[in-house]
């Protein structure tokens, strides 16, 4: 199997567009939560809604970090396309299955090697 570079670039571009949109949405949500919490007490322990706001802020911040990391991973995948190593497992050197790349365009390892990850 030879990697179809046009397909690889399209796959990565689509995933990057989705991840970038997710970053923008989550960033907006996070700003809204932070702005909204300015009008509440800083005492999360005694404020009936404080723990809910803190949890929501932490959850959105975590999803935002993950989405930003996904964009970075996709940028690295684009670099592997340019280098001619996209679709090759970084651990064993075998080709990564198309179905895996369809699901995870930034995949760096084949399924076998990923299950051994330590």
TrEMBL record:
Where would I find the dksA C4-type zinc fingers in this protein?
89-113
Q: Which UniProt keywords apply?
A: Metal-binding, Zinc, Zinc-finger
A Pfam family of the record is: zf-dskA_traR
Q: Which PROSITE patterns match?
A: ZF_DKSA_1 (PS01102), ZF_DKSA_2 (PS51128)
Tell me which residues make up the Zinc finger DksA/TraR C4-type domain: 84-113
Instruction: Work out whether the entry's keyword set contains Metal-binding.
Output: yes
Q: Which Gene3D superfamilies match?
A: DksA, coiled-coil domain
Q: What is the protein's given name?
A: TraR/DksA C4-type zinc finger protein
Q: What species does this protein belong to?
A: Rhodococcoides corynebacterioides
